[in-house]
Amino acid sequence: MIEEGRALFLQIAESVEDAIIDGSLAEEAQAPSTNELAAFYRINPATAAKGVAMLADKGVLYKRRGIGMFVAPGARELLLGERRTAFAVRFVDPLLVEARKLGLTPEDLELLIRDRASVPAASTTEGNAR
Amino acid sequence: MSRTVNVIRMQLINRQTFIWLPLIILGASFLMSLAIYAMIPTDAPKYGGGAQAPLWYFFAVGIQAMTLSFPFSQALSITRREFYLGTLLTAVLTSVILAAVYVVGGFIEQATNGWGLNGWFFRLPWIWEQGPAAAAVVYFGVAMLLFVIGFGCALLYKRFGPLGLTIVLVGIGVLLVGAMYLVGRADAWGQLFGWIATQGALGLSLWGMVLAAVIALGSFLTLRRATP
Amino acid sequence: MTTGTHVIEVKNLTKRYRDVVAVGDVSFTIEKDTIYGLLGRNGAGKTTVMSILTAQNFATSGDVRVFGLQPYENAKVLSRMCFVRESQKYPDDAKPGHAFAAARIFFPHWDQELADRLIADFQLPMKRRIKKLSRGQLSAVGVIIGLASRAEITFFDEPYLGLDAVARQIFYDRLLEDYTEHPRTVILSSHLIDEVANLIERVLVIDRGRIVMDEATDAVRDRAANIVGDASAVDAFVQGRQVIHRESLGNVASVTVLGALTLADRERLAAAGLDVAPVSLQQLIVRTTQHAADQSALDEGALR
């Protein structure tokens, strides 16, 4: 889960963001505490704290004094917006490069995408599990 | 000051080193001496050197206090001063106890007239000449001197290596030979032996304690720059 | 991370043995309640530095202050530190229990419950004499003293040598747990960098007696990347960038390059059909150190 070559606190923040985006961490729910994150990922609590602080700065989490950090209302929308922007660079660009290599035009890609999107969820995950 | 007392407590955690082993060695040596006395078929008084054994053990304790106890004390963040004073005091404490055991042994020996064998282990005449208190001082003094010498030798080895230790010991040897030469030249052997006789066991051990104090001070100064 | 209280300040520390410079003009500060990694090869000077900080060894020149004071023979300062070294000596015939009893006397914050828990975790045989313990068990004794002492500044000098991977993980886990509950300053020396990478907040890398890196771990983590692919394409990409390592097999090259990659960079790489592989902290430190060593050798050669 922890990747090399990337700042740890960013990865921690991302894992919390992932949970918010996929709905497992709802808005206004209590976020995992710094110590819980540190213990789970076996990292220094200060690093976990940095990740949480970053999310608070971004407006994704807010602090309820004496209780802990909670997911801010609108956090999900905020994150989705961010991710959509990054999506193009992170996923679409490499896709286009590879497609070009294989001689697939954007129209071919469109057909391919629609085709794959209509396949039932179970087999899709199997396909993804390389 | 309480940290120095804690060093004493620390040294006595493993009672074996300072308490049991000296007593066990004493006991073993005593029994062996008795056995030997029992085997000698004479009614004349029998004397032996068995009582030395635990005292020489203090020499070994002194060495180990430097080679093992000191590095451990550093890991416990004890200062060299606290360690040295506390360890020295522990040696003093246990030497006193040992000397007391010897004195008690001497009294019992006297009362039983040499364990019924006229065999003498504790109450050696030239040590008890000036009485039981003096005898206690002698045993105490010898134990402490040996402890301090053991510690000092190990310390010299640690700081200056085997070469350094050898040089010092050889140097001392040279000094002694030199002194003997001077005594010979002044034809003063008779005076020297006479003086030794008048000092007696008590006097000599008091001088020994002076020597021990000098060595102890030198060791402390050397220890201040020793690494574990 | 707590802000700027230095608990240790080292200025121009040098340690010379005859003509060997074990530690050369080293300066750094240690902040309160932070875990540091003192990283470097065997013989780089890690143990020497730690010994001098705890007054077990002496500097040839330079200034060392702990809690603002000089540590030498200073019980007030020393009692707040704990340094169990890699091959620590214990009194002859002592059993682990004796060593812990002694530690309990001298460390004001000693936690016996924690010690007992660790004894069970490491399966330490309490009835056996320390001199008869295996290398791993001996290390466990040192680790337990270091952890249970709860000293404000605790040094771990590769004390887990001899511990197998499972025991090492136990050590890291217990260290983190206890550090979370009772924050303190910890300085962990190691050459197993990747194992401790996630524990340490700051890296202090020492190579041949000199500090070559003193940074926050996260800042260093994304500092380099491995570019892999066709050799000529790789060379074209790394033009003008600082390369710290190069390997090749046939016409495939793998180059470690310094500098974070921008999105534009990543697009170029994707377009050129090159792969980007992450660089682990260990690789980064090893390669940076090696590169610096090669550079200084070259410089020395040029000067002659």
Give descriptors for this structure.
heterotrimer; A: 130 residues; mainly alpha; Arc Repressor Mutant, subunit A; 2 domains; two-stranded antiparallel ribbon; 6 helices; elongated; B: 228 residues; two-stranded parallel sheet; 2 strands; 82% helix; globular
Structural overview:
The complex is a heterotrimer of chains A (130), B (228) and C (304). By secondary structure, chain A is mainly alpha-helical. Chain A has two domains: 8-74, Winged helix-like DNA-binding domain superfamily/Winged helix DNA-binding domain (Arc Repressor Mutant, subunit A); 76-119. Chain A is 65% helix and 6% strand. Chain A has helices spanning 8-21, 34-41, 45-58, 75-102, 106-117, 121-128; strands at residues 61-64, 68-71. Chain A has a two-stranded antiparallel sheet. Chain A is elongated. Chain B is mainly alpha-helical. Chain B has one domain (2-223). Chain B has eight helices and two strands; from the N terminus they run ααβαααβααα. The radius of gyration of chain B is 20 Å and the shape is globular. In chain B, 36% of the residues are buried. The model of chain B has no long low-confidence stretch (mean pLDDT 90). The longest helix of chain C has 23 residues, at 281-303. Chain C starts with 5 loop residues before the first strand and ends with a helix. Chain C contains eleven helices and 13 strands. With 304 residues, chain C is of the alpha/beta class. The model of chain C has no long low-confidence stretch (mean pLDDT 90). The chains are: A mainly alpha (130), B mainly alpha (228), C alpha/beta (304). Chain B binds chain C through residues 3, 6, 9-10, 13-14, 16-17, 64, 67-69, 71-72, 74-82, 224-225, 227-228, and chain C through 51, 54, 56-58, 73-75, 78-85, 88-95, 98-99, 101-103, 105-107, 142, 145, 151.
